[in-house]
Amino acid sequence: MIKVGDSLPAVTLQEYSDVEGNGCSIGPNPVKVAEATAGKTIALFALPGAYTPTCSAQHVPSYLAKAEELKKAGVDEIWCVSVNDAFVMGAWARDQKAVGKIRMLADGSAEFAKAVGLTLDLTARGMGVRSNRYSMLIKNGKVASVNVEAPGKFEVTDGSTMLAQAKG
After folding, report:
1. Dihedral pair phi/psi, residue 24, rounded to 5°
2. CB 157 within 8 Å of CB 149
3. 55 is catalytic
4. Which domains are delineated in the chain?
5. 107 and 88 in contact (C-beta within 8 Å)?
6. What share of the chain has pLDDT > 90, as a percent?
7. Burial level of 4, CB count in 10 A (0-12/13-18/19+)?
8. How does pLDDT run across 138-157, given as a tens digit for each residue?
């Protein structure tokens, strides 16, 4: 499992954009993790799936509620990573009113989740290999803090916990 001081894996996530701009075309665009985190402070949180109950009702809303405070605490970007495709993540961003506040990044084949050692096998529930629920504060591509939830819990990966770590 990834730990404090480790560099993020050199994998590529996907991001859906509804509008062209800032060098991004409409549709899924690659986000090379190493390049996208260089020189930035990122509040990254990962979850088992878009549109799932805890993720939609609590996890994303907790970061939306703290987005401005996180920026004031020095966070350049907030990332939500899930083992879904970019189209689902784009639709979920619209539904959650997260567009422009949280980058909803698709880890479609669970490459990122596997590389950080935080997969969750939900095959028995018909969902395949997913991401565990966790959060990380990233500074210039390196892990400054990491929080991993116990199975079925939502206690240490919320926006308030991340804000405290960003201020710390």
Report:
1. -105, 135
2. yes
3. yes
4. 12-167 (3.40.30.10)
5. no
6. 82
7. exposed
8. 999 999 999 999 988 999 99
60-72 and 86-96 are packed helices; what angle lies between their axes, rounded to 10 degrees? 80
Q: Taking 90 as the threshold, does the pLDDT of residue 23 lie above it?
A: no
Q: Using one digit for the tens of pLDDT, what is the confidence trace for 63-89? A: 999 999 999 999 999 999 999 999 999
* CA gap 135, 79 in Å, rounded: 10
Mean predicted lDDT score pLDDT of the chain:
93
Q: What is the mean pLDDT of residues 85-113?
A: 96
- Strand 103-106's sheet: what is its strand order? 27-32, 12-17, 103-106, 77-82, 41-47, 134-139, 142-148
Bridge partners (DSSP) listed for residue 82: 47, 106
Mind giving me the DSSP string for 17-71? Answer: ESS-BTTB-SEEEEEEHHHHHTT-EEEEEEES-TT-HHIIIIIHHHHHHHHHHHH
For residue 41, CA distances in Å to 37, 68, 119 come to 7, 14, 24
Structural element, H or E, at residue 83: none
Helix (H) or strand (E) holding 81: strand 77-82
Catalytic residue of the set 36, 43, 46, 55:
55
Nearest CA among 41, 165, 44 for reference residue 103: 44
